[in-house]
Amino acid sequence: MKIVIPGGSGQVGTMLARAFQKRGDEVVVLSRHPQPAPWRTASWDGKYPGAWAHEMDGADAVIHLSGRTVNCRYTPQHRKEILESRTLTTLAVGQAIAAAACPPKVWLNASTATLYRHSIDKPQDEFTGELGGNEPGVPETWGFSVGIGLQWEAALTAIPTPATRKIALRTSMVMSPDKDGVFDVLLGLVRHGLGGTQGPGTQYLSWIHDQDFVRAAQFLIENDEVSGPVNICAPNPIPNQDFMRAIRLANGTQMGLPASKWMLEVGAVFLRTETELILKSRRVLPAVLQQAGFEFIFPEWPSAAQNLVRRWRNLQG
């Protein structure tokens, strides 16, 4: 198969490119700043169809992952960059696919599980989940994130591609042992004695093990019956206090200092980020994946954390 990955030079894109190439697929990564890689890379501006558009012609699948990091303060300039890096690139990919003589059979486009409301009381899936943005008492920035997700998915459906199946990947936090990833940061807190409960601890965290993430992408490419929004997450979201405890146990760490909400707010200012990534309760379930027959290798966080800690240590030598 030929797999084209626009915006695939980051951690998640590299993870997918590595896996697809390992199984013998032809991989092409589109990047604004191409770097030497074991697979083929090509340059694109992420705004308009250019010379890169011919890569879509004859491809079997496209996995579009572009998007400026949300790990920043939501200043007006950053908000503009976050939105346009998602919507303009998605529209450009759609235009290239629509113009292809032999378009790809399937287009997986990144989206976000933060579309769902702040939910502690009940799980949110693709069929009965409630979109967020209007919850009473939550920060305005949370509504901004939901709006970004909605506009992102609207860009995916804006350009007709009748020969190409479309899937919006409503992805939760992808946990891998790679440097500077979410798990690497959390494990670093644990290793330095700071990996206690964050905020109230009752807020849920939706996650997916990196191996299941890759397998889910492969499954969706090969399953012709699935289209539309798909939650990419493990079937067992877990409260923050239990999530952090599992990392401590996997690492053999006895204690971790907790961080209260006000401490997180102050820390977020100094780190130039937002507390939404920690404090919003994401209790999301992968109903579409499971109904389609996908089986998780790591459905429970404690065993996933043990695997990730072991692999992280191996990467450290």
UniProtKB/TrEMBL annotation:
Q: What is this protein called?
A: TIGR01777 family protein
Q: Can you tell which superkingdom this protein's organism belongs to?
A: Bacteria
Q: What residue stretches are annotated with the DUF1731 domain? A: 261-308
The residues the entry assigns to the signal sequence are: none
Stated family: Belongs to the NAD(P)-dependent epimerase/dehydratase family. SDR39U1 subfamily.
Tell me the ranges covered by the NAD-dependent epimerase/dehydratase domain, including all copies.
3-232
